[in-house]
Amino acid sequence: MARQKKLLRDNYHQARWDEPMIFEMSVPGERGVLVPLACENIVSQVGDGVSAIPANLRRKKAPALPEVNQMRVNRHYYHLSQETLGTDVTLGISEGTCTMKYSPKVQEHMAARHPGIVDVHPLQEPDTMQGILELYYKVEQFLKEISGMDAFSLQPGGGAHGVFTNASIIRAYHRARGDNNRTEIITTMFSHPCDAATPNTAGFKVITLMPDESGYPDLEAMKAALSDKTAGIMITNPEDTGIYNPRIEEYVKAAHAVGALCSYDQANANGMMGIHRAREAGFDLCHFNLHKTFSAPHGCMGPATGAIGVKEFLKPFLPVPRVEFDGQKYLLNSNYPESVGKVRTFFGNTNVILKTYMWIMQHGAEGLKEAAICSVLNNQYFMKKIAEIPGVVIWYAKGKRRLEQVRYSWEKLKQDTGVGTDDVNKRIVDFGIEHYWTSHHPWVVPEPFTLEPCESYNKEDLDEYVAVLKQISKEAYDDPNLVKSAPHKAASHRPTHEAIDEAELIAVTWRQYLKKKGKK
Amino acid sequence: MHKKPIVYPYIPNSVPEIKEAMMKEVGVTDPMQLYEEIPEHLKYHKEMQLPKPILDEYSIRRHTEELLGKNKTCGEHLSFLGAGCAQHFVPAVCDEINGRGEFLTAYVGESMGDHGKWQALFEYCSLMGELMDMDILSIPMYDGGQAAASSLRMANRINDRKKVLVPATMSPDIFLIVQNYLNSVPAPEIQIVKIGFDANTGLMDLNDLKNNLSTDVSAVFIENPSYLGFIETQAEEIGKLAREAGAEFVVYTDPISLGVMEAPANYGATIACGDFHTLGLHLGAGGCQGGFIATHDDMKYISEFKDLMFGLTDTMQEGEWGFGEVLFDRTSYGSRDKGKEFTGTSTGLWAITAGVYLSLMGPQGMQEVGTTIMQNCQYAAKKISELPGLKVQLSSPGFKEFVVNFDMTGKSVAQINKHLLEFKIFGGKDLSIEFPQFGQSALYCVTEVHQHKDLDKLVYALQGAVSC
After folding, report:
1. Please, where in chain B does CATH 3.90.1150.10 lie?
2. Between vectors from CA A295 to CA A291 and to CA A301, what angle results, nearest 5°?
3. Under an 8 A CB cutoff, do B339 and A374 touch?
4. Is A291 on the interface with B (CB under 8 A)?
5. Does the domain formed by B92-358 have CATH 3.40.50.1220?
6. Mean pLDDT calculated for residue range A164-173
7. Given CB atoms, is B433 within the 8 Å cutoff of chain A?
8. A500 and B324: CB-CB below 8 Å?
9. What confidence score (pLDDT) does residue A399 get?
10. Do B332 and A193 contact (CB within 8 A), yes or no?
11. Is A344's CB within 8 Å of B177's CB?
12. ipTM of this predicted structure
């Protein structure tokens, strides 16, 4: 029985375990794990220990946690993992702007298993954790070279956190100069929402520029918005559309001309390593997502790192402690009186820093550039193939080459068949492919979807993805209800409420659910 | 001779023939033509100065092992370091589950293909809810510092008041995080006032609290157990005073204490928060922290959470669990700068792990672990206080940490710790810079991982350190 090699996994079905909630699995008296008890000698000397707690602060009613034996707990979470489409099992091409690259197993095995990181306490004397500090120091040197900036902090725990820290640095810089008039930050609609939200959290008024007709941020609008009240601009380039803005320098110069700082959101930097740097573009601050561009995994939303880079004049404002090297030893230095202080306890997500270190060390300058080139090559090849699918429109900048991702639109498909991007996005998992990223809100491009086929994927992976989209497009024209009622073969079906906004429908914990259902 | 191009195992299309065919397909003959949108003068024309790569997997592993081998560890050493990152027992199933590739490499997929991720995070919230005896949690935050800072921002939005009161004993690191987070433009909008404490007990000075409490106070924040280890025995009264003044009562807690200590909600906390690194996670050189905020079921609070919330609902298939986004427009994903603060990638994998931990432990496990910690801690404190010249600084009961004062020994904490290191012991955190009023003092952390012999070894080594 010969089987023809095929691209489309039309016989696929995801694990669907019909898994109960862990609370429903409780059997009174069962134990998942036994914990160490104090030995008799200790008990004989100190008693029960808990009597030391004043009566009103002693737990009166045991927490209503489930009682489940270990095998069932393990099996339960295995089932849930099998009902999850991580990049280890699917094509992470789907999540554009997220750079879902392969996270090499050798990194994970070191980061999760080596006692030289797993069992190190962050407050050990620097002499006893030279390897950890060396890691931080060297990754900082690497990122300086990759970006052209003069100093980095690896403390922020995610991309948005890095951007927030940059907003904090901009605030501290102007204040240190005694310039209290700068209350505004300018960003663009196609920059990540955090470029608007984090300066707002830092206390700035945020001005968001809409794209012009070609999809670029409107330069004239920016010039009009700039003034002696502008503290900084916080922008992405290429933006989420994948379009590089060739006039980026003019934006930067215009901002500098009014005394504002320029912060470069480089979450989308994967296509640019060794090709283009923040320094040459004139920026004062930048950030990289180490869990994207530098291969650390995304872990169901973290742990992550938003590494922030600054020019020399902003170094005094970076979070403390800073890892430094005196020529012989690595040390921690908190003596930066102008620092913004801290944004995270201790010094950061060391496991992410280790993975970044290993990935850069495995590739070197040449390999990083090769990764960038292959990610852009993949994207341009992919875009060409997707453009041929009925119903797809490539929004903006016709004929221009995109860098590492593209914002596409199913606008035509919607008009022709009534099937929109949300429907396609639910059908795609029926072929074993993760839901794709549509767009951040608001949707400026109608019926959007954003794909990023980074360097991890080979040509056959790309062709498989294209075959799936082509199949769904065909289904939309032939049998739209098939797509509109999808998914059919995923771990679960369409929720009755994808957006839950009414108080009576909100159940974010099991106990809240039981109360609302009158069961508790 | 032309150098043979490297084929990288993580860059499949670096195979020269394939790369060439694909370049042909997109109409370029040189890879740099892919970048025609970037002006020449903005391109980087030099080669980045990075170390020569270690191409093969065996060698990078060896290299990394050698680098990590430079660290001394809390496995081969006996460690009494805590101060916000404590060593606890990690059940094997926790490592097993957070090592599952599907969880490790998933991200923002919707609830159908990522059903398991949504359920696991919903269960994390649910299990934490039982521990906290509160109904509302969002998916997690970066760490306890962020949770503390966001709790105070929530309070400010709820009552529009501009002052928060915090204990002067609070974690200096978390204070720095809060200070930056409550800052604004052009000047801090929310004033942070440190409330004094009793030097003998560490407890909050209630007179100072009362003097500072007024209708402009947005929140009263306490840690319980506190950074310095003591239990804030006046917590209920502090909460009462706070609420009488119309302020939110924010309690920062250590979740592993809650099998034996009362849930903050039950002594008046309106917002509870903390760091869940104690629930099934390793030290990881500080890389396994995770923050949470919990409140009661009240739209006044629910609508002020800044992070995503996964709500349980039904699906089109009768009898199947489904999940939806709760009040998505609260978040910056939904509303950019009009959202509550900002959200983003945080610590999902660690939250799933904390859920696994609580599932394994159950009510009895949490009660037992809390008991063991307190017994071990009291034993260590007792034995240390019996040593000549050593004093347990604060007289209040503690949970897992206590302050040891060395002034009478004439030795500095640095000297003591150096001596302890020779016994392969990491002594407590040196407090002499953060809390100079305690002289040469160190913060010792004792948990369920310490056995009787470990504690006796510490006492023996300390005896040697003070008398040498």
Report:
1. 78-88+363-467
2. 30
3. no
4. yes
5. no
6. 98
7. no
8. yes
9. 86
10. yes
11. yes
12. 0.98
